[in-house]
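User: Fold both of these, please.

Assistant: Here is the first one.
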Amino acid sequence: MIWCSLLALQAAANGDLELREIYSQSSEFWPKAHVDEGVVAEEIGLLPDVSFPKQNPFNVAKLFLGEKLFHDPLLSHSKQIACASCHEPELGWADGKKTSFGHNRQRGKRNAPSIENVAFSTSFFWDGRAKTLEQQALLPIQDPIEMNLSLTDMVSRLKQKPEYKTAFSAAFGDNAITALRVGQALATFQRTIVSRRSDFDMFLMAGKQKTEKLRAIYSNAMSDQAIWGMHLFRTKARCMNCHHGPTFSDNQFHSLGLTYYQRKLQDLGRYLFTQDPSDVGKFKTPSLRGVMNTKPWMHNGVFADMEGLLNFYNAGGAKFTKKEEDPLSPETSKLLHPLNLSKKELDALAAFLQAITASPAVGPSPKFTQ
């Protein structure tokens, strides 16, 4: 392992020529990731299989019911907004806007996150206020700025549609239509939206291919520049302090200094849910799989291009220190530091982010519908 780390340093200096060989090995032989003391970083890698909770087991009829509900504007007060209005497949299951429009064209304060790979999340919304996907699915429907419909009215509307009685019966064994079941069906559908195989995934799978031709195709899926970017991501760029594991997210909450405290765009983040002053300005670490499909980025969509976003991290974020006299003043995460990355290194990081971005999923993963 020490030899491997030394070789990686030499390879980076020599323009990545040896990095391909190093990262073609099993991840246990990769150079050690650069993370701060106390950070337990899971290695980046392939996505695991999707699991479904015991309280809401999978069946295909429930999936199709959830898909129908997801695209039905009947779930909004105006009958003009569906869940899919802010989560469009062609836009990476986000909506391409800084912040989304909702009921009566009201603009929300936060960027619509992608639902791709949401099955692997452990909390939901930018502030983590929902603990389960079933709970999350019902909150935008009730939100007065988003869909503005009470659950009672939603259920009443669905009961008036004979096709929904048939669909609920197929999914749950009887035709009782309840808000709980709506949430379960929507969550089941969302868990089947899994990202396609990326160039990064193909590279990791090269050694498992049965023919030399396939191994070469998979191995060359990532460019030398992207492999260098992966090395930087794991080491000098310090990205794995927060973006690690198969989804490239620690599922935790951090402050990057984008609270805009006492300014027009102020958003106190997780504090608004927990009321804990230490949570001021903290937002959930988003998954980076498919990241290039989902601009603009950050909780308020403030970054529209990746160059600007990477320069922000290269500078160490926006630095704020909490003031003793003001418990709601923001404090930037200590995990952020100036990185002093060169233009070529930033370009390599961008190439790696492209390599972990596949074309958006067009719908439920075929493994769930076949």
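And the second sequence with its predicted structure:
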Amino acid sequence: MHQLIIKLFGPLETQLNGAAVDVAFARTKRALLAYLAVEANRPVARTRLATLLWGDYPDAQARKSLRNVLANLRQILTPDGLAASLHLTIDRQTVQLTVDGDSCQVDVVRFDECMRNAQAVASITSQNALLAEAVTLYRGELLAELSDVDSPDFEEWRRLQQEARHRYLYAGAAAAHRLRH
């Protein structure tokens, strides 16, 4: 089975089939991968991606930059011997990263699941286990290494994502405190 792992809390890490994928590539490529990973399992309009990362460029140049980065990203995320990426779906209108928990894992996706599920389960033991897993996944600030992306739209999105995870952590800490008392 081919497996892709993306970690966005703390230092950005990507693994494909157990081997580290070089994420020291261009910051727009890292930003695009991070955006698709956070927005996992949802098709994202190519126009949204072009505007998000190349909003200051003319439309034709922004679309061309997106095409080039997507082609390179697809190549990086496609295991040897396969004709297409198992996790990255690209068509004329949208792009989507599919995260299923087995063949593709993203720490922020699992973190969000743990926090939502912890609020929904009645068992204190289950809540504690989910909160503990979420805390383990939180290796540092979300998307911290992407503060150098030269795009106000991306920076705003990044900041909102960080704040949402801070709120989740605060709510989880408050819930854990209530459970103990």
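The chain has six helices and seven strands.
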